[in-house]
Amino acid sequence: MGHSITDQFNRPLRDLRISVIDRCNFRCPYCMPDEQFSHTYQFLDKDQWLTFEEIFRLVRIFVSLGVEKVRLTGGEPLLRPHMDELVKNLSMIEGIKDLALTTNGSLLGGYAVQLKKAGLKRLTISLDSLDPQVFKTLSGAKGRVEQILDGIKVAEAVGFKQMKINAVIQRGVNDHTVLDLVRFFRGSGHTLRFIEYMDVGNQNHWDLTQVVPSREIIAKIHKIYPLESIGGTEGGGTSQRYRFIDGQEEIGFISSVSQPFCGTCNRLRLSADGKMYTCLFATQGTDLREHLRNGASDDFLAHLIRVVWMKREDRYSELRSQIHQTHRPMHKVEMYQIGG
Ligand code: SAM
Ligand code: SF4
Ligand code: SF4
Fold first, then answer.
1. 120: helix, coil or strand?
2. Is residue 318 assigned to a domain?
């Protein structure tokens, strides 16, 4: 492992999320609402994407600064051609303990084998509801539940174990379908995780009344399938872990709104065009691509990253209500640009 660097609140750098593409084949209303992302929307051009060589080079530098976990995301990462090549290259970097990918699952059936062969360790699949109509709405009429479940089956068959299934819950939209997901994934060997709907970006018209606090979901599940807390949180402390008392695996809750976890946040994000963001709610990134393409040395890049991390004092979720009270508009980065 590399030398640890810490930020203004003594948080080390451990976790890196890389968005490999800003495009998506879904139009989830909470992320890329159809009306704003029509066919005329200007996504990045291919030459604006970091190349695989550039990503590889940056990841090695990040690892030398303490990164141990790398997650590939998007947009929809499986829309980026030859993802298996990138995975293969990254899987050879010494010091990465965990290499994962988050996908909407729609193309997973076609790619699972090659991703596994390339050395991908873990998969997270987003699936907000099993109800066909609700799912249709939540994918912006682009996806079908069966397609995602088939993708999961293929991934199981090629050897991916203990996948994470992430569901973002919105009041009045899919909160009535929570128990179906629990019933379906209990006993499947995968870990279901419920995520509070967040005010990421500026496009989704978020408001607090749409957030279902995890404690409410936990209570609802507990009535039917008793749960017990297994304390502690995973690395970085994002998820509260529970298990079913009857012994059938784990279930997680990510409560970024009702119980923020900025205190332990060790995550850095890299957008497809090579901007580095120190918070999911950042208003500004640091352009690394410009330096890469102007011939910067590894030492220079490492120094730049170190300086940015050491200055970091982000804790948006802990300050959320204060920030909202000021009513000052903030131009935040969008979820599809940095991938959650
Ligand atoms: N397209 C891939 C997918 O959907 O899994 C990867 C990128 S997507 C931006 C990553 C995750 O962010 C998804 O699980 C999605 O549900 C979640 N997400 C997007 N917008 C969100 C929001 N406003 N609040 C909470 N989670 C959100
Ligand atoms: Fe696409 Fe993922 Fe955003 Fe949905 S959440 S629009 S699948 S990037
Ligand atoms: Fe980390 Fe920013 Fe989220 Fe806080 S709000 S947990 S600092 S990404």
1. coil
2. yes
Check pocket membership of 277 for ligand 3, CB cut-off 6 A.
Answer: no
Q: What total of structural domains would you count in the chain? A: 1
Q: Which residue's C-alpha comes closest to atom 9 of ligand 1? A: 339
Half-sphere exposure of 168 (CA within 13 A, CB side): 20
Question: What is the maximum alpha-carbon separation in the chain?
Answer: 60
How would you write the pLDDT of the chain (340 residues) with one tens digit per residue? Answer: 456 899 999 999 999 999 999 999 999 999 999 988 888 899 999 999 999 999 999 999 999 999 999 999 999 999 999 999 999 999 999 999 999 999 999 999 999 999 999 999 999 999 999 999 999 999 999 999 999 999 999 999 999 999 999 999 999 999 999 999 999 999 999 999 999 999 888 777 888 999 999 999 999 999 999 999 997 665 556 889 999 999 878 999 999 999 888 999 999 999 999 999 999 999 899 999 999 999 999 999 999 999 999 999 999 898 887 877 776 667 878 887 877 7
For residue 272, the enclosing domain spans 15-161+263-338
Residue 117 lies in a domain: yes
Examine residue 258 and state whether it is found in any structural domain, yes or no.
no
51 lies in some domain: yes
Cα–Cα distance measured from residue 64 to residue 96, given in angstroms and rounded to the nearest whole number:
10
The pTM of the full predicted model, rounded to 2 decimals, is: 0.95
Q: What CATH code is carried by the domain that includes residue 288?
A: 3.20.20.70
Give the span between the Cα atoms of 230 and 232, in whole angstroms: 7
Residue 59 to residue 162: CA distance in whole angstroms = 25
Which of 262, 308, 311, 333 most suits a substitution to test ligand 3, by most atoms within 8 Å of the C-beta?
262
Amino acid letter for position 56? F
- Which among 239, 269, 280 is the best mutation to test ligand 3's pocket, defined by most ligand atoms within 8 Å of the CB? 280
Closest ligand by atom to 335 CA = 1
